[in-house]
């Protein structure tokens, strides 16, 4: 499948009620139906709601270019795994993406590298594009942040590599200290780390997009330019008007991407 020039993702985490999720999705679907860069596929948007809202927002986004996904999955496909949701059911529900390894899941649910690697393999096995979250816990110089992230990526991709799985993987780099903060990491730091992450070519047979997350909001994408393949958004996408502004910025960036000017 052709990749959008700019990828935007929104995780609603557990912020919205069911009805709020539907109302927000209706407004975003309206934007997506009319935004030229979304209609022509230059800007891609995926939305990850809480599990119970997946089917309903799948209907709301059905006639749009917006993809839906989940915030987690089980590493097993079926069986006696009370409370879990497996990749096959997510695929049945129309999910294209699944988030894996978010810092909040590591912190609050003690997810380990081994579990994250198994979940990533489960996603690929079920035709879902993993949105692999990773990022350094403390503020580090860019070269050390890149080295720390590289180790996390090697661990997270290890099971997929062992099973010789391949496919698209969204690399959602989120410095842990920038998540839930008043502002994102400094622009120059984001640019340098994303550049370094995009140079990592020894991680397996995957097609990567590197997107930045951590208090990202309007203005950031325009400031970063082509240093990133997109953004992973949380709180600052809760207002549909703010998301529209970010989509506009993505469209402007997509129009000046090297592949766009060659076309
Ligand atoms: O999943 C999204 C990220 O954790 C970013 O969330 P945030 O923008 O609210 O910090």
Summarize the structure in words.
This protein has 11 helices and 8 strands. The chain has 263 residues and is of the alpha/beta class. Strands 1-2-3-4-5-6-7-8 form an 8-stranded parallel barrel, surrounded by 5 helices. Helix 7 (142-162) links the parallel strand 5 and strand 6 (167-173). It is globular. The chain binds glyceraldehyde-3-phosphate. Glyceraldehyde-3-phosphate binds next to strand 8.
Write the layout of secondary structure elements.
Blueprint: E1 6-11, H1 18-34, H2 36-39, E2 43-48, H3 54-60, E3 67-70, H4 87-92, E4 97-100, H5 103-109, H6 113-125, E5 129-134, H7 142-162, E6 167-173, H8 187-198, E7 206-213, H9 220-224, E8 230-233, H10 240-255, H11 258-262
Parallel strand pairs: 1-2, 1-8, 2-3, 3-4, 4-5, 5-6, 6-7, 7-8
Helix pairs in contact: 6-7, 7-8
Proportion of residues in helical segments: 40-55%
| Number of E-state strands | 8
Strands side by side in the biggest sheet: 1-2-3-4-5-6-7-8
Bound molecules: glyceraldehyde-3-phosphate
Q: What is the helix tally?
A: 11
Alpha carbon gap, first and last residue = 18 Å
Query: Secondary-structure element sequence?
Result: EHHEHEHEHHEHEHEHEHH
Show unreliable segments.
Answer: none
- Our estimate of the beta-strand percent is 15-25%
Family: Belongs to the triosephosphate isomerase family.
EC number: 5.3.1.1
InterPro entries: Aldolase_TIM, TIM_sf, Triosephosphate_isomerase
Pathway: Carbohydrate biosynthesis; gluconeogenesis; Carbohydrate degradation; glycolysis; D-glyceraldehyde 3-phosphate from glycerone phosphate: step 1/1
